[in-house]
Amino acid sequence: MPVPDDWAEQLAGEFEDPYWQHLRTFVTSERRSHQVFPAAPDVFAALRLTPFDQVRVVVLGQDPYHGPGQANGLCFSVSPGTPIPPSLRNIFAELGADLGCAPPATGDLSAWARQGVLLLNSTLTVRQGQAGSHQKQGWERFTDQIIRAVAARPQSTVFVLWGQSARTKRALIPTPPNRIVESPHPSPLSAHRGFFGSRPFSAVNEALVAAGQPPIDWCLSPA
Questions:
Q1: What integer pLDDT is reported at residue 1 of this predicted model?
Q2: CA-to-CA separations, 201 to 69, 195, 206, in angstroms, rounded
Q3: Residue pair 16/145 in contact by the 8 Å Cβ criterion
Q4: Is 5 one of the annotated active-site residues of the chain?
Q5: Any bridge partners for residue 180, and if so which?
Q6: How far is CA 186 from the centre of its chain?
Q7: Mean of the pLDDT values across residues 121-135?
Q8: How far apart are the C-alpha atoms of 144 and 29, rounded to whole Å?
Q9: Of the four listed, 34, 125, 152, 196, which is most buried by Cβ atoms within 10 Å?
Q10: pLDDT tens digits along 168-210
Q11: Closest of 201, 141, 208, 136 to residue 179, by C-alpha
Q12: How far apart are CA 103 and CA 93, in angstroms?
């Protein structure tokens, strides 16, 4: 699946750089000899569902899920019918505590993406069962440029940085005009260290309203 045209226009310089050809060759080779997630048509799903000029919020993840049937191209999200992973379960628990949203029926976050929430992983592919296996091959350089392109716009964007990996991206985000909402990661290893109780969803909406934008409807279809 190619990069959508509106995003490709913003990222044109990346495709001329040697690292991009290396990255494409690497991923193609990996797919020939291993199971790679997400499926090729979903690699740029986040960009497809959230056009460049409609981005209002950016949520940064790290790797796609590496279990069968999990990764769908949106960070933290899984497709309907897929069991909800632990980090996403904790996100939903905090969503309920923060805004009173009922537990969702599925882990599909595409409704957020369609409202202008860019659900971006820093690495866009992974080998099955091997977390981090596609890191340091060029994806981070590409997604850093996505962050820079969004952050450089005149309008304010809210960046949600959960965990140390995401928080390293602060240097790419000028504030103001942008706003940053950050906390420990929602994984079971760290959620109790400050993610729970951080109320990120109301914080994002408060920042959007302060910037003259409508809030996100974070509540998803209930079970």
A1: 62
A2: 27, 12, 9
A3: no
A4: no
A5: 159
A6: 13
A7: 94
A8: 24
A9: 125
A10: 999 999 999 999 999 999 999 899 999 999 999 999 999 999 9
A11: 208
A12: 8
Per annotation, catalytic residue among 6, 42, 53, 63: 63
| CA–CA gap between residue 213 and residue 206 (Å, rounded) | 10
Helix (H) or strand (E) holding 5: helix 5-10
Kindly compute the dihedral angle of the four CA atoms of residues 90, 96, 101, 106, in this order, to the nearest 10 degrees.
Answer: 20
Q: Half-sphere exposure of 104 toward its Cβ, with a 13 Å CA cutoff?
A: 27
Residue 23, token pair as written in the block: 């990255």
Average the pLDDT over 147-164 and give the result. Answer: 96
Question: CA 118 from chain center: how many Å?
Answer: 6
Q: Name the one residue in this structure whose structure tokens are 């408060």.
A: 206
CA dihedral 104, 109, 115, 120 (to 10 degrees): 150
Q: What is the pTM of this model?
A: 0.96
CA distances from 153 to 54, 117, 148 (A): 11, 16, 9
Q: Quick check: 110 pLDDT over 90?
A: yes
| Both tokens assigned to 64 | 């796609």
> HSE of 181 in the Cβ direction (CA atoms, 13 Å)?
21
57-70 per-position pLDDT tens digit: 999 999 999 988 89
Return the structure tokens found at 203: 């914080």
HSE value, Cβ hemisphere, 13 Å, CA-based, for 55:
30
Residue 169 · residue 161 · CB < 8 Å: yes
